[in-house]
Structures are given as C-alpha cells and as structure tokens.
Please model this.
Amino acid sequence: MNIDFEKYEGAGNDFILIDNRRNQFKADVATIKSFCDRHFGVGADGLLLLGNSRDYDFDMRYFNSDGHEATMCGNGGRCIAWFAIRRAISEKQLTFSAVDGIHHAQLVQEQQQQATIRLKMNDVEDFVQTDGNYRIDTGSPHLIVPVDNVAGIDVQQQGSAIRFSDQYKEQGINVNFVQKVAPLHIRMRTYERGVEGETLACGTGSVAAAIVHLLENNTVAGTVIIDAKGGKLRVSARREDNIFKKVWLEGPATYVFSGTYQTKF
Model:
C-alpha cells in the first residue's frame, strides 16, 4: 500500500505526519518502525496520525520510532497543528484531543514553510525530587538531571543507563540533562525512551525542565528560554497552590517535504 505523508520538524525533533481521517493507515509496530528508520525508511523520531474527532478539530495519535504508541509529544503537537493549518483542516486557533487530554494551539507567526506555534499543555502537579533530580510528568514522564556543562555529557551512555536502570526499565523514562544559563534561561539535552537515543529537542521535556527551573528559582510565574541542540523553545507557566497552570510551549514548526511511502508489511 502507498501512503502519502509529510515530514515536519520542531527545533530538530522530526516527525512523519499522515492525514488519517479516512483510516487508510493501519498502525502496526513493524510498519511504523520501518517508516521511521533513518537508513531504510523515511527517517524520523516518531510518527503522528491526524484522525477525526467528534468534538474537536482533530485527534492526534503519536508513535515513537520503535513503532509503539506513546504518551504526549509536545513538539509533535506543535507540528501537527501546523500540518492541520497548512492543509486547511483547522483554523489558526485550534483544539485537538490527544492521549493526555485536550490541547489548544495557536499560530503566532508564519513565514513560507515555517511557523511559530504555541501549544497549551496540561496543568502540572506531579513532580517529586529524588537524589538531587526531579521526576515530573508533563504528559510524558521525565527525569530532570541538573549538570554544570551539558555539552560535556555523554547523553547516550548516561541517559540509557538511567532509562534502563532497575527503577525505570519497565515503564521507561525520558532523561533530560539541564544546565542553568541565567534566570529564566537553560540549556538541555534529552535521551528519549522509544527512540532510545538523543533527540535534538523534546517538547514535554522542555516543559518539565522549565517547571523545575521555576521551582528551583522560587519563581511564581515566568517564561523560560530553552536552548536545545535543534533550536530554541519557550515555556511559560504560573504556579498556583503547588500546581503549574497556564502552561504554554512555543517554538518553530517547519514543513520539510512530502512523499509517498510504500509499506513493506
């Protein structure tokens, strides 16, 4: 079967997107893994399906490059919003459903094939400090590991050691190494479960890192700039009664190319 797709990236976090409102693409592990393979397929960190929704503009399903359906993907959410706007599926302000609930998105600015997209994330209240790190859920589980020099970290070795440790190997966890640059400014590198390697950016990880930064600086509200390897992201949030609300993830979403993929299975 031939499948039409588009390729997008959000700060280097890259995705295959499929308009699946007619349910023509049957998601299975082998096909998605082959689709995302960087040597024998199209190549991507993950695959996104845009489906019909009775109550909202569309429904989003996200699959990691290992072929398995995953939890929320923030950069993927921003890219699928730009995909929907470009294909006239949605207006410039839209609402969609995902595995972790309902999300709102806004087109801030567009220039040819790239846009700045803001994505409303869920309130965050699940954060625990453990051994100097923070475990936090922002739609996906993350461990925030503070470091002095993020450029010197062996993300593959250190990230996989944590992700496959006895504590996390069963459910998995995304590991974010975070360096403080200045008040409301951090650098971050991420080891992502499901990809099982470093990605150039991570949306839910950026939200987690920004919230930890606000916690550590005892800041009630603010916008944190995150320098990822693939670009800059911005996260704004406000703390109310130990819950972070009005959480927005903002950054670039870029159309890369379109194509047709012949499934192998």
In short: The helical segments are 29-36, 74-86, 155-163, 203-216. The radius of gyration is 18 Å. The mean pLDDT is 96. The CA atoms of residues 20 and 51 lie 5 Å apart.
